[in-house]
């Protein structure tokens, strides 16, 4: 597992024991991809907690639900929604990469090109996606109602 | 720097005291579960986000009537239920790993995990309850 790798690499480093030269994991892009995977996973879990509770208001009354859901509709919330999409998308793409490293015989060999590939896919989705949501947000902010 | 430095002592392979057969396979199954649930969540969560934020009028069209319309269909009920359970268990199990990695004192670790398990139960129980008891006419 990624977490184990990060820790043993760190431990070897601190013990001044890194005789394997080029295979040190700490500070490698592979480590940062794991850090980002961990942070996005935790953030999405926190969102899920809030989200299930706000959805639960449909059991209270239609009005209670509608009033709370209004907060998602404020134009500035576009930024929050983009952040959420960006986090989920990165976590999903990197999750697929982790599975390929684990199960595909050539996965470890290609882990780095796969990292650049998922980052490219992330940009290709996020640039038009952000453009679309931001334009809509601006229209609501200045032209709306 | 001698190459023969062995970093760890290795047990004799056939020594009779090895407790291998008594070990639990929980961590193996949890590792597998992270990967299988992740694969399904790709479609469930990204599909959910696409529908909620990008299709039609995105977030602007969401209200009680919208949810009532969607949960009239068993397909979306099943979608949401699967997503709820998988995201709750996958995210919760992931957070368990994170707590195991960073909590230094046994006590801290114990209480953080209790907090985590309670939140997981709340998420899954409340979400399931809402989905099964949803009443489109609750306002009347
Ligand atoms: C800002 C983005 C999001 C919006 C606007 C949104 C909107 C909604 C809405 C309107 C529902 C009501 C049921 C339905 O119509 O299907 C719902 C349910 C649900 N959403 Fe989301 N969602 C978002 C992001 C997410 C994410 C990222 C996740 C996963 C981590 C998620 C997980 C769920 C689950 C599990 C349910 C079912 C809850 C229950 O059974 O009580 N949602 N969402
Ligand atoms: C969208 C599809 C998803 C995929 C493909 C995916 C994939 C993965 C994989 C393969 C791991 C294991 C990483 C490892 O063992 O090193 C993982 C960890 C994790 N996931 Fe997901 N996941 C997805 C969605 C989610 C969601 C919706 C949440 C939150 C509710 C979440 C939260 C986490 C957390 C907290 C971890 C632990 C991170 C760590 O130990 O560093 N994931 N994910």
Question: How does this structure look, described?
Answer:
The complex is a heterodimer of chains A (145) and B (140). Chain A is mainly alpha-helical. Chain A has one domain: Fumarate reductase/succinate dehydrogenase, transmembrane subunit (3 helical TM bundles of succinate and fumarate reductases, Up-down Bundle), CATH 1.20.1300. Helices cover 78% and strands 0% of the residues of chain A. Chain A is built from five helices and no strands. Chain A is elongated and about 60 Å long. Mean pLDDT of chain A is 86; it is low at 1-18. Chain B has 140 residues and is an all-alpha fold. Chain B has a single domain, classed as Fumarate reductase/succinate dehydrogenase, transmembrane subunit (3 helical TM bundles of succinate and fumarate reductases, Up-down Bundle). Chain B is 67% helix and 0% strand. In chain B, helix 1 (26-54) packs across helix 3 (74-102). Chains A and B meet through helix 2, helix 3, helix 4 and helix 5 of A and helix 1, helix 2, helix 3 and helix 4 of B. The complex binds protoporphyrin IX containing FE (2 copies). One protoporphyrin IX containing FE sits between chains B (45, 48-49, 52-53, 59, 62, 67, 70, 76, 80, 83-84, 87, 127, 130-131) and A (44, 47-48, 51-52, 55-56, 72, 81, 84, 88). One protoporphyrin IX containing FE (HEM) sits between chains A (1-3, 37-38, 41-42, 44-45, 48, 88, 91-92, 95-96, 98-99) and B (34-35, 38, 41-42, 45, 87, 90-91, 94-95, 97-98).
């Amino acid at each position: 597992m990624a977490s184990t790798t990060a820790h043993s690499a760190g431990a070897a480093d601190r013990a001044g024991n890194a005789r394997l030269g080029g295979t040190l994991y700490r500070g490698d892009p592979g480590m940062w991809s794991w850090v980002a995977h961990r942070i996005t996973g935790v953030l999405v879990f926190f969102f899920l907690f809030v989200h299930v509770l706000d959805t639960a208001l449909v059991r209270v009354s239609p009005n209670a639900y509608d009033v709370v859901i209004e907060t998602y509709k404020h134009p500035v919330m576009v930024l929050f929604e983009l952040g959420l999409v960006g986090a989920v998308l990165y976590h999903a793409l990197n999750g697929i990469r982790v599975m390929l490293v684990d199960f595909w015989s050539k996965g470890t060999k290609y882990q780095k090109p796969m990292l650049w590939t998922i980052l490219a896919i992330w940009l290709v989705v996020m640039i038009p996606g952000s453009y679309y949501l931001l334009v809509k947000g601006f229209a609501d902010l200045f032209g709306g109602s | 720097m001698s190459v023969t430095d062995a970093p760890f002592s290795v047990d004799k392979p056939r020594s009779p005291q090895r407790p291998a057969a008594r070990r639990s396979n929980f961590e193996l199954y949890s590792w597998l579960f992270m990967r299988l649930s992740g694969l399904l969540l790709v479609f469930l969560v990204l599909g959910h986000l696409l529908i909620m934020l990008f299709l039609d009028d995105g977030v602007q069209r969401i209200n009680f009537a919208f949810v009532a319309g969607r949960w009239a269909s068993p397909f979306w009920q099943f979608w949401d239920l699967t997503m709820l359970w998988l995201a709750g268990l996958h995210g919760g199990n992931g957070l368990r790993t994170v707590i195991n990695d960073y909590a230094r004192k046994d006590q801290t670790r114990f209480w953080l995990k209790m907090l985590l398990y309670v939140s997981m139960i709340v998420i899954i129980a409340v979400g399931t309850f809402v989905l099964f008891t949803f009443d489109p006419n609750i306002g009347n």
